[in-house]
Each structure stands twice: as structure tokens, then as C-alpha cells.
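note to self — DONT lose this again. spent like an hour looking for the file last time. sequence + predicted structure for the chain T wanted, 216 res
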Amino acid sequence: MAAHWGEIERGKNYEIMKPVKGLPQCSSVNEKFIWNEDDSIYGIDIPAWKQFMYEVDCNYEDCEEYCKDKYGGAYVKGVNKNVCYSYEILQGICVVIKYDPLKDDYVFHGGCYPENNTYRMVPGILGEEVTFNNVKIEIRELSDPIVQVGEWTDYGYNLGHYWRYVSFVLKFLLLAALGLLGYVCYDIYITREKFKGAPNLIGGEEDRGMPGGLGM
């Protein structure tokens, strides 16, 4: 995946957009793939899916269940070995770029996900057809508050993970409100305790009508 950028005031005109700098060379450039002349050779390698193979020691009768339960995969009987195949499929892409004001350029900084990954994979489900129509693609600037929180908490995000940030803020506000409520209740309690020991300003029966009394 390659990326270009342009100022919003100029509209969505690809011809005048500038490429994001600092992207690595695509790994398949030198392999036997069709590569159009106008295609950028610099970008991020993102697999649509990954396959994993595990050799297993199981009896023929229970190999299918064993593969399904342990790896979420499918069993294939080989000539001299039993093999399980499982898959991961692409769920999201998230890239962080950094603006360079001196050169007026955006520079590739890495991925949004843990360990600086630029994509997120999830286990495939046997028998489920995958169209990749719901793959979310995000490009975020390094100064983005969500990126900062993601680095601070080391959870990454797919925003999906955005809601983790919102949840963090809401929890902070809730704790602050509870703290303020506790302070107010404590202040009321202390005030009432002070007045418990105060003298009664209303005179007794013997004081009513007497000079210096507080009769009412």
C-alpha cells in the first residue's frame, strides 16, 4: 500500500498530490508480479491472509476434531504425516505519518498497532466466506491524541481502540466526580459536627422576661 497527500483546499486531485516519504520498497517488486509502470515501488507490504501449517501426531479418527479444537484449522492427511492448516485474515490497516514543516512533507512513521505493526489480523473461521469489504483503513498523524494515548498505554488501537481512549477519559471524569462528591459530603459532615457542640442561643424558661434573658 502506498499513500499520497494533498491540501484539502486543492480538492481530491491525485495529479497534484505528493507521495508520503520514507516508505520501504515493496518486497514483491523484484519478483514475478505484474507491476504497472505508474505504480509506486515504495509502500507497505500488507497480506490479505496468512496460512499456517502444523504437523500433528494424532490418530486418523480424531485428527479433524484435534485440528479444529487446537488450531481452529482444517486437517489434511499427507503421505507420511498429518497436517493442520489454519488461517488469519486481514481486519484493519492503520498507518502513522509525521509532518515535516521544513520540507512541507509527510513522512512514514510506522504502524498504529502493537509492535509498530501496520495491519491487524484475526483468526479465520472454517467455512466462512471472506470478502474483505469491511477492512478499515486509517492514516493518522503522529501528533494525533489517539496515537499519543496508544503509545502511552501500549495497547495500540484500531479505533475500535478509539473507544478505549473514550472509555479512559470517561473513567477519569467519573473518578473525579466521585472524588468531588466525597469531599463535599465530608465537608458537610465536619460542619455538622462543629455545630453539635455549640451553645443553644434560645434561653430557657427561667430566662424568659428576665433582664439579659433571651426570651422570645
